[in-house]
Amino acid sequence: SMFPWQYLALLLLIVVQICKAQRCDEFTDLNFGHAFIGTSIRVKLLLYTRGNGTCATLLSHTNLSAQPLLNLSRPTTFVIHGYRPTGSSPVWVNNLTELLLHREDLNVIVVDWNYGAANVNYLKAVENTQKAAANLTAFIKIMQEHGASLTSIHLIGVSLGAHMSGFVGANLNGSIGRITGLDPAGPQFTGTRPEDRLDSTDAQFVDVLHTDMDSLGFREPLGHIDFYANGGADQPGCPSTIFSGTSYFKCDHQRSVFLYLESMRQTCPIRAFPCSSYSDFLDGKCLDCDKFGAAGCPVFGYDVTQWERVLLKLGQTKTFFTTNSMSPFCITSAYRVDVIIWNRDARWGYITVKLHDKGTEAVATIDHKSTKFQKYTETRLFAQFNKDVKSVDKVSIMFSTGNVFKPKYKLRVLRVRLTHLERKDRPLCRYDIVLEEKTEVTFRPIPCEESNF
C-alpha cells in the first residue's frame, strides 16, 4: 500500500498538471526601468475566443495548428496598443477583448509589442512600429494560407497602433476588411506621405476617431470616415492644467478608447454629423442627414459598418459629435431651436433650454459663442440635451448676455420652435414671450402651426 507522502506526491503532480493546462498567458508587464533603458522589439500574440474569454493563449507565429482554439473560419480582430512610456499594460485591453467577444464569435488577438513600445525615446518606438507591422503581416499571410479570409480581418489600432495597422494593411495591398484608428498618433506622422502613416487605402474600410489632435493625436482626416469628438482636441472632464499630473497628458488621447468601448456596449447611440468644421457644427449648420438615406447620419463606433456602402461612395466624410464628461458619454437627444424676435435693435447672447417630462429635466446650454438675434430674422441654434425626454410637458428658456455691468436686456420672442433631429415628431412652438435676462421662463409648448414666418 502507498504511504501518505506518496499520496501527497501524486496529488501534487495532478495539481501541477491541471495548473499547467490552465495557465493563462498575460500581457507583458514592464516598468519605467525598462522604458528608461529602452526595449527592443518582441511581439507576442495573445488569443482570446469565447472558449477562453478571460484566459489568453499564446500563439505560435509560424505553427497555427499548435493552437486548436484558433478557428480560421471565424472572423479575426487584432487589437494593437500604442506607445507605453512607463511600460505598464493598457488599462482598457481586457475590457475591449471582453466586449468584442460579447458582440461576436471571433478570434480576438491582442498584439502585445510592449517590448518595443516601452521606451522613453518615442522616436525608437515609432521606428519599431514598422518592425512589428512586418511581423504581424507575416502572421496574417500564414493565416491566409490556412484558409482565413482577409476581408474578415479587423485591426483596431490605438495611437501608434493605428499607424501600425496602416502599415500591415498596406503590406497586404489594402485587402484587409477593416481598420479602426483610435486617435492615431500625431508626432512624427503629421505631414508625412500616406504610405508613411494610416490612410484610407490601407483597408477596404477605414474609420478613425480623433480626440487629441492638438497634442498627441493626428489632426487631418485619415479614413473613409473620420469622427471628431468634441471638435477632436479637448475632451470634457479632462484636466486643463499641468497640475493634475500625467492625466493632463494622456486623458484626451485615451478618451478615444473609452468612447469606442461605449459604442460597443450599445447603451446609447452617438450620432455624428457631417461638417467641415466644429464651429459650423455647433452653429447648427450641419444637421442635414439626407445623403445617408433612411438610416440617417452615421452612428459613431463599432457599428458604423452599417453605413459602409454609402461612405465608400462618398469617398471621405468628416463628422462631429459632442459628449458628456463621463460614461455613458452620449448626449442623447438633439434639437434644432429656431428663434424669431421682434426687438427693434439686435441682441447678442446665450440661451439655455430645459425640457421637462414628469419630473425629469434635460438641459442644453448653447454657449459656445454669443449668438446674434435680429428683428424678424430666424436664428437657428443647435441644442444638445444631457438626457433623452420622450415627451415634453414643459419647456424653460433663459437668455443671458454675459455682461455683468451693462443694464439687463429683454429678448422679445415672436416665436420659438423646437424640432427633434431624430424622431419625426411634430415641432413644438411657443409664440410671443418676453425673456428677461437671467430669468427663466417656463411654458407649455404647443404643436407648431405651418406659418408664413
Structure commentary:
This protein starts with a helix and ends in a 6-residue tail after the last strand. Helices cover 24% and strands 27% of the residues. By secondary structure, the protein is α/β, with parallel strands linked by helices. The strands form three sheets. The chain has a ten-stranded mixed sheet with strand order 2-1-4-3-5-6-7-8-10-9, sandwiched between helices. Strands 14-11-16-17-19 form a five-stranded antiparallel sheet, with no helix packed on it. Strands 13-12-15-18 form a four-stranded antiparallel sheet, with no helix packed on it. The chain has two domains: 17-321, Alpha/Beta hydrolase fold, catalytic domain (Rossmann fold), CATH 3.40.50; 333-447, Lipoxygenase-1 (Sandwich). A hairpin with a 2-residue loop joins strand 12 (347-357) and strand 13 (360-373). It is elongated and about 90 Å long. Residues 39-329 form the Lipase domain. Belongs to the AB hydrolase superfamily. Lipase family. Residues 1-21 form the signal peptide. Ca(2+) binds at residues 197, 199, 202.
